[in-house]
Amino acid sequence: MGRMGIQSASARTGDIHAGGIRTVGIVDNDPFTLSALRDVIGSMLGYRTLWAERSAVTALGLCAEDADAPDVLLTDVMMPDMSGITLCRLIRARTASVPVLAITSYNLDVHARRAAEAGAQGIVNKDDPAVIAAAVAAVASGTVWPYRPSRDGGDHAAVTFSTAAVAHRQVSASRAQRAIAALSRRELDVVRLTCETLAPFSDIAVRLGCGESTVKTLAQRAYRKLGVTNRRELMALWTEGLLS
């Protein structure tokens, strides 16, 4: 992409959501690419750049805040502090409200499958502003940007991107399943009884034949492994069918 005038990578615009204008968050460690992408977003789409960052870790934190979460996240795949694939997976495991479009200067076939599995809604090449604009618009509308492999047949032809909502369920379920596999038998018993009976820990302790303090310890260990902090969050996973 052309090297346009450099703007501050962490600059933010004010009152972005006013008037219903779509917003985009951009993360790329190259300041020239950031500047060029801001221009594409503004001049070709009329969207507003909510923020442009050179750190994937910073972008992750911004996407976790309602006030800073963009309508679409445009992320480079290869970055020094965290890959765009990991960034996408962490965002998608947490929420469906931030669609993600991956960008790369490499052949798309290299990263397409990993991006799809991480919960992205598409992947495009950095060198085609028109395609970037069209893909951002598609993802912002709640759909996906279809992947077109450069190689015929094989695994590349089978890569399919999902909407943010579908990808969120898939990534969350996968993470929960891995966490469940890491639970000990006793931890799993506590989780199951907590969710199925809604009983207090004292009653669960009686059923398991152990002390209440032991049940509390087992519950805290299970919470950490499942990525929750309390019963309410545990029940949310159970209700969504992610622990079954």
Features:
244 residues; alpha/beta; Rossmann fold; Arc Repressor Mutant, subunit A; 2 domains; 5 strands; 10% strand; elongated; transcription; transcription regulation; DNA-binding; DNA-binding response regulator; phosphoprotein
Short description:
GO terms for molecular function: DNA binding. This protein has 244 residues and is α/β, with parallel strands linked by helices. It is built from 10 helices and 5 strands; from the N terminus they run E-H-E-H-E-H-E-H-E-H-H-H-H-H-H.
Describe the structure.
This is DNA-binding response regulator. The modification 4-aspartylphosphate is found at residue 76. Keywords: DNA-binding, Phosphoprotein, Transcription, Transcription regulation. Residues 23-141 form the Response regulatory domain. GO terms for molecular function: DNA binding. This protein has a five-stranded parallel β-sheet, sandwiched between helices. With 244 residues, the chain is an alpha/beta fold. 49% of the residues lie in helices and 10% in strands. α3 links the parallel β3 (72-76) and β4. It folds into two domains: 18-162, 3-Layer(aba) Sandwich (Rossmann fold), CATH 3.40.50; 183-239, Arc Repressor Mutant, subunit A. α3 crosses α6. It contains ten helices and five strands. It has helices at 31-45, 56-63, 84-94, 108-117, 129-140, 164-182, 185-197, 201-208, 212-226, 231-239; strands spanning 23-27, 48-53, 72-76, 100-104, 123-125.
